[in-house]
Amino acid sequence: MTGLRQDARSASEHSSADAGRTRAALAALSSGTGGAWAVSLAGIALAFGTQLLLARLLEPAAFGALFYTFAWAEVLGMMAPLGFDKLLIRELARQRHESRWTLAHGLLRCAARWTSLGVIVAVAVAVAFGLSLRARLDPALLPVFWMTVLLVPVRALVNLRHGALLGLSRPVAGLMATSVSFSIAFLVLLGLGRLLAPAPFSAFGAACAALCAWLASFGLAELEMRRSLAAGGQAPPELREREWLREALPMMLIVAMALLTLKTDLLLLGALRGAEEA
Known about the structure:
- This protein is mostly helical and 278 residues long.
- It has 9 helices and no strands.
- The protein has helices at residues 2-57, 60-79, 84-97, 101-132, 142-145, 148-167, 171-196, 203-229, 241-273.
- It is globular.
């Protein structure tokens, strides 16, 4: 009888512990979801405000040239990580849960290496497009379009940090990097440029402000990622490069199809009809 009572007590304690862990997990999920929802709404509002401000500051041709460049930077910057930004979300979450920090550090190193290669290819595509069509492109597009060469690497790195922060269970910090912090920095720089620049605001100046804003976002995301990884210590990286690359590339293809569906009209319109039509 004593043994039965002890077994019953042990089962009850085990059930209570499971229930406690479930409640804690649900509370964490609820908190993270609410924070991510609030940050997403703030990002949408700030992006809308930024577009309104740019529409007031720029002429129609300059506005079209700027967003044509942004479209190229977004497409190439999303494809340059070769799917590793999406793979990080899944794999880092699993490795963090299992405290396998050697794999986490190895995956981050592998992702950075392949993203560097993807950035080189993406920049080469942008340069080849600009050189091959420079005689046909609207003259208003060309000075701003070459900013794509600088915007693509920064966008790719920000996307990589965004995926890492989501995988490390930091959804609010991850969304901040790609929406709120960029929009705030961009708005501040646009305001300073409007106040300090004697000449009318240009699309090239706005593109330079966007580049600085993305660099600021990357810096904040990098700090947050390093802080999140500090719990795992300085574990030596363990690499499974072929396995990770095999899983990442299909994710890149899915992203590429979605982006091209959304952006092909703007890219073709700008190339064929000029900046103002875009």
